[in-house]
Predict the structure.
Amino acid sequence: MAEPARARPKITPETQHYWDGAKQGELRLQRCDSCAHAYFPPRPFCPKCGSREVSVFKASGNGTLYSYVINHRPLAAGFTEPYAIAVVELEEGPRMMSNILECPQTPEALELDMKLEVTFQKIDDNLTLPQFRPAKG
Amino acid sequence: MRRNQVAIVGAAETTKLGVIPDMSQIQLHADAALNAIADAGLKLSDIDGIATAVETPQQIAHYLGITPTWVDGTSVGGCSFMLHVRHAAAAIEAGLCKTVLITHAESGKSMIGKLPRSFQADSLQGQFEAPYGIYGPPSQFPIPVLRFMKTYGITHEQIASVAVAQREWAAKNPRAMMKDPITVEDVLNSRMIAYPFRLLQCCLVTDGGGALIMTSADRAKDFPHKPVYVLGTGESVETPMVSQMETFNSSRAFKVAGPTAFREAGISHKDVDHLMIYDAFAHLPLFGLGDLGFMPYEETGKFIADGNTRPGGKLPLNTNGGGLSYMHSGMYGMYALQESVRQMRGIAPAQVEGAKISVCHGVGGMFAASGTIIFTNEK
């Protein structure tokens, strides 16, 4: 019997640029042309001031570990527990969910506010997932 | 909303609570509704307003055989019923209906006729959270905890003490699922679910339901039980994505709903005799005590660990045992409301003697929504 499939995003018109960027090794955010607010997740208007004049830009990929859990329940297809489900605070301000790759999945190794950097996890030819790992150097 | 213009005149849970393998979810609704209607001394045909969540009002109206002139299908998770109470009070005051039935039921354990409550792969949650291995509340709701602990200096032992205090209350409630005493060590040695939370810091999974009957205060005195008046109400929503909360140091939805209810009620925190804070997980009472303004966040963990919310403590909290020990069918808000009503009627198994004001605070989703109802038994 086939393994249950890992949950994967179904892309919408408003999020296409984000997932295209991930495939090209870019973490893409949006910024309001009127009030300069940087935001995530993607939408074609600024959630702070309502302006429809917004631009997509390549984020630095630098962030810090805001909070996390280490899941021990075997309920998500495609994951091997224990694994961290984290929220990363990006240098540009927005936060996003991520796993923490290339790091022991322990409270000792996962220190709040530790520096992280983006990495790109290729799931298959159609999907690359932005992920974070401890910053190097 | 004006104070004390609307009252709860009927309140009941399902005949059985816990594991109910011989009843589907819609029948649990009916069982709770019929019990509440009987409690109010009414007939089905007296009901002209219906509110419910997950199930639609038309499912409930059809199944029960009711023709409503007002309906509310607000479905924002476990606090939907707090929002229903608020909306029903406004509707009754506005003359849109006279006698409202609010029902909740969930075959959360037996899963008979249970409706799915999942999100789609093309929703924002489906795109930007699901790919990272979330699977349900235990994987998402505790995500803010470590940040909250670091910001305010809260310890693992203090959060564990929430479960211990509530087990003491549960021991006094014959209908509570879990009644055996536990210690902080028991909590911290229970099976790891999603660090930092272990099994005894996560809610139960049960079957059950509850229903409320509301009417105007001037009619309320003609009913069999002491009326429980709606003194103040509040509601808000923030985001369905826990990762997108404004901060993990508080809940924006809590900070809108709670203080709105206190302002409406015209009371201060020292007036509160009895408190319910929806505890799907052990950190929620800490967020609630802080966000509702009872004390600085830094003091919340110590306050509970020191025993102030236990039986005999100065702020009785979650006196049925809560979602951690009483029952939790998935949308626990109705059971918190039922306990507030019992306390205001003076008939709770763990009755707070002389209690006159009860604050009942709910959460929906993972801090996605919130509703607060303040009750009183004095008009």
Remarks:
- The longest helix of chain B spans residues 25-39.
